[in-house]
Design goal:
The protein is an alpha/beta fold and 386 residues long. The protein folds into 2 domains: 6-286, P-loop containing nucleotide triphosphate hydrolases (Rossmann fold); 299-381, 2-Layer Sandwich (Nucleotidyltransferase, domain 5), CATH 3.30.420. It is 36% helix and 21% strand. The protein has 12 helices and 15 strands. It is elongated.
Length: 386
């Protein structure tokens, strides 16, 4: 048997040092240098670097929305083993669509750690030689590492138990199966309210980090609900969104995985709404909408003379008025406040007029609306459409 040269040994040691520090280099060793290719898949480098920063930054949530087959689950699995290698005291919980998938995820992470060194093959043990599975703790869904009294890893799903350990990192990988579930309001509510918020969230401890890998479905899917929750509570999070096809540049995210012809065939086969959601991260219920999302707030939060402690501060008050063009048309006049960071909020008092009343009535209504709200900028639409 030919022994490796000193040069190769030195190269492998250098690769191990890089893989310890860099998740992307770790993925290249663990998985495939052709798949984790910086030139053809720069988005994977961006995601890996974001996870590296996430380990110690002040974001509580990192969400990665990207199309199927582009490395989402691979990177999630590699991330779990890499984090445990860097700190065997970490506790990780992974949540997936069902028990079969969550157990498969757990086995993959466990088997990465248990892989034995081989000639000319760098494995987990070469990079993290002190990290080993605890004897007698190698079950499929719950196991620990040597040196810890408690288990380090638990795989769970909406239909299974999540009791047993707390977690520094909660890793969620695709929770919605199909279009039916994406439209099912009760199912989505149960998934978020009962499982994510009331069950999984209570298992967070230590680092208290949530890492989500998902394709999008609707604004009420777990991604949308988590983002809304963090925005409402003013908590820090980071969102990375990757589209399979960028309509502005005409380029595919990774043509080696999905080229334009295959993409067009997908639209013809499974429908544009699903492709836009799963592959381009445009939720089904927003496809074709003129307005994507309205900000909601408590009127008591608006700062005013009567309420000096309000959190929402307007730099000016504006009104947009679309006048009625014909006898069957509606007049629509909306008053809104604009904050210093250019967010718009519809005001709570006499802020919307939507009517088919004649001009003699609407002129007085709009005038009163402007005065009641101290409007500073008024923009009517003329009858020629401008």
């Amino acid at each position: 048997m030919r022994m490796p040269t000193l040069t190769q040994v030195t190269i492998n040691k250098a690769k191990c040092v890089l893989a310890y520090k860099s998740l992307f280099d770790y993925c290249r060793i663990r998985d495939s240098e052709t798949f984790y290719d910086e030139e053809n898949a720069p988005y994977l480098l961006e995601i890996c670097e974001a996870i590296e920063e996430f380990e110690n930054d002040d974001n509580e949530l990192l969400m990665v929305n990207m199309p199927p087959r582009h490395g989402k689950s691979r990177t999630a699995t590699n991330s779990a083993s890499w984090l445990l290698g860097r700190n065997p005291k970490y506790k990780i919980m992974t949540g997936t669509y069902n028990t079969i998938l969550s157990t498969k995820f757990s086995k993959q992470v466990r088997n990465i750690i248990m892989e034995q060194p081989r000639l000319n093959k760098i494995c987990f043990n070469n990079i993290f030689p002190k990290v080993k599975i605890k004897y007698g703790s190698a079950s499929a869904g719950m196991w620990g590492l040597e040196g810890n009294e408690e288990d380090n890893y638990l795989a769970t799903a909406p239909n299974s138990s999540s009791t047993g350990i707390g977690c520094d990192f909660l890793i969620i990988d695709d929770l919605i199966k199909n279009k039916y579930e994406a439209y099912h309001k009760e199912l989505l509510n149960k998934l978020f309210e009962d499982w994510i918020r009331d069950t999984l969230y209570q298992r967070l401890e230590g680092k208290r980090k949530i890492l989500v890998f998902m394709t999008r479905w609707s604004t009420k899917d777990p991604c949308g609900r988590l983002i809304t929750l963090f925005q409402e509570q003013g908590r820090k999070y980071r969102l990375i969104t990757k589209k399979a096809f960028d309509s502005k540049t005409g380029k595919m995210l990774n043509p080696n995985i999905l080229n334009k012809r295959q993409y067009d065939l997908l639209i013809q086969t499974i429908g544009e709404d699903i492709v836009e959601a799963n592959y381009n991260q445009t939720p089904i219920d927003l496809k074709g909408c003129l307005y994507k999302r309205f900000l909601e707030y408590d009127p008591a939060d608006i700062r005013s003379i009567d309420n000096p402690n309000g959190k929402i501060i307007f730099k000016d008050i504006r009104c947009r008025c679309d006048t009625a063009d014909t006898g069957d048309d509606f007049l629509c006049s909306i008053v809104y406040g604009v904050t210093r960071d250019n967010q718009a909020y519809v005001l709570p008092i006499n802020a919307i007029i939507y009517t088919q009343d004649d001009m003699e009535t609407t002129e007085k209504q709009v005038a009163k609306q402007l005065l009641d709200n101290n409007v500073m900028v008024f923009r009517p639409e003329s009858n020629n459409g401008r």
